[in-house]
Design brief:
By secondary structure, the chain is α/β, with parallel strands linked by helices. The chain has a domain of 250 residues: Rossmann fold (3-Layer(aba) Sandwich), CATH 3.40.50.1110. It contains 14 helices and seven strands. It has a five-stranded parallel sheet with strand order 2-1-3-4-5, with helices on both faces. A two-stranded parallel ribbon has the order 6-7. Helix 5 crosses helix 6 and helix 9 packs parallel to helix 11. It comes from Aquilegia coerulea (Rocky mountain columbine). This is SGNH hydrolase-type esterase domain-containing protein. Belongs to the 'GDSL' lipolytic enzyme family. Keywords: Signal.
Amino acid sequence: MTSIRVVVMVVMATVVVFALTERPICVQGRNIHHSGDQLASRKNVSCILVFGDSSVDPGNNNHLNTSFKANFPPYGKNLANGQCTGRFTNGRLPTDMTAESLGIKKMIPAFLDPKLKKEDLLTGISFASSASGYDNLTAQLTNVLPVSKQLDYLRHYKIHLREFVGARKAEETVKNAVFVLSMGTNDFIQNYFIEPNRSKEFTVEQYIDYLTICMAEDIKDMHNEGATRLVVVGLPPLGCMPLVRTVSGSTRCVGSFNSAAFLMNSKIQDKLAALRSSLRMKIGYEDIYSLFERARKFPKEYGFTETSKGCVGSGEIELGDTCKGQTTCKDPSKYMFWDSVHPTEKMYKIISDDVTRLVKRHILI
């Protein structure tokens, strides 16, 4: 584990160095409203409100004093005009595509975007911050938004919404929203297995128990702010990420990381079952661990030819600012990963399709 810690800290230090140098900043992408099949309207879903990390951050980190940003090429390569909006992938995020599938809008904007329109408040906002986690310490390590701050911004959002449409309409909008919570990866890769703080305090299982308690408190806060419908996204097989395999010196998925993710997912599901009963909320669990495993084991069924390396650079270690100036693969849709941690838009579409089915089955009906 010491070798993992050293190599990854070198990578993270390189990220910081790049962050201090001048780099091209892409123009922010604008939201495109999309009629779709109007399922959201027919099922009385007002909007999507998103909390989490880089898996669902459309660019909030662009406006923070942190090195964990993706507002430069080659990120966003496959968005219209190659817009690098701050999304850590080549295109859209799962929440973007789920919103489109529900007939709400094509892209979920960042709450901190200074160009945010009042109309966007009615259809969906993301408060997510790349490199964040259930553990507040995880966010502190990289100066990003912990969930507590994301929830503070939810309260600010509600104030702006009331000013725009009135108290009654604002309350109905939040009540009929689908909340999404997606994080946990950074708690392990960036915090527990790299920084020595939490690993000195907790065993892996103790840390997982701590994280699920934090998650439960976050969900209770959402409920207190008016949330009635929620999708919680589990962790992927962390040991199969190209970065983890590289720094571990392994050609195979790293078992200890996967075991931690699997146990965390099990504990999440147990905690959600209790919360459904105590809070009387509609809560769905999205099992992305199984999706990644199926795609990795049967890549041809999903159109993938590469599942062990990312599309950017060597595909083995590039992440964030270390992707700056790197070449990319010819066809990202053949790759599961875009950089050494984050999936391609193609993999995110697979996740989005499953989330949409989950929402239709457990949240809307």
